[in-house]
Design brief:
single chain; alpha+beta; two-stranded antiparallel sheet; 7 strands; globular
């Protein structure tokens, strides 16, 4: 069972607000860069939160690798479109990962805007993660909490 590592009413309220504000948004979760569940919107069952955490961890790793291979810089957002839904994944400036699942007929532009806005404002309720540097000066891909 996955438990939240950050017990904050502000984060839950912010995630609930995001889901309530955007028509078609169904659930929202926030993860640490290594996939630890930090928070979730209301009505997200434990099993759904665990599945999203696993899915998003894989997508995040793939996006990070794509950024390195393509020399494109850091990962900002991933959008997965399926037949009946979308999954939006965005990184915050502090390194946490926001994920929102929405209905397939929802307005994608509205969700992309709201996800980007939330990711930019989320630092008040989230810990900050730093990328570890390797001895050669590159990034190892690992993230650590700022002391």
């Amino acid at each position: 069972m996955t438990f939240s590592a950050v017990a904050t009413d502000n984060l839950t309220a912010a995630l609930d607000g995001l889901v309530d504000r955007v028509p078609g948004a169904e659930v929202a979760v926030v993860l640490s860069p290594d996939g630890l569940l930090l928070g979730r919107s209301r009505h997200v069952a434990d099993q759904v939160a665990e599945h999203l955490a696993s899915l998003v961890s894989g997508l995040y790793a793939l996006g990070q690798a794509a950024g390195r291979v393509c020399l494109a810089g850091g990962l900002r957002q991933i959008v997965v479109q399926m037949a009946r839904s979308f999954v939006f994944v965005a990184t915050t400036r502090g390194g946490a990962i926001l994920t929102v699942r929405m209905a397939g007929d929802a307005d994608v532009g509205d969700m992309a805007y709201e996800v980007a806005l939330f990711a930019a404002q989320a630092e008040r309720a989230l810990p900050v993660y730093l990328e570890a540097r390797t001895a050669a000066g590159g990034t190892s891909g690992a993230h650590h909490r700022r002391p």
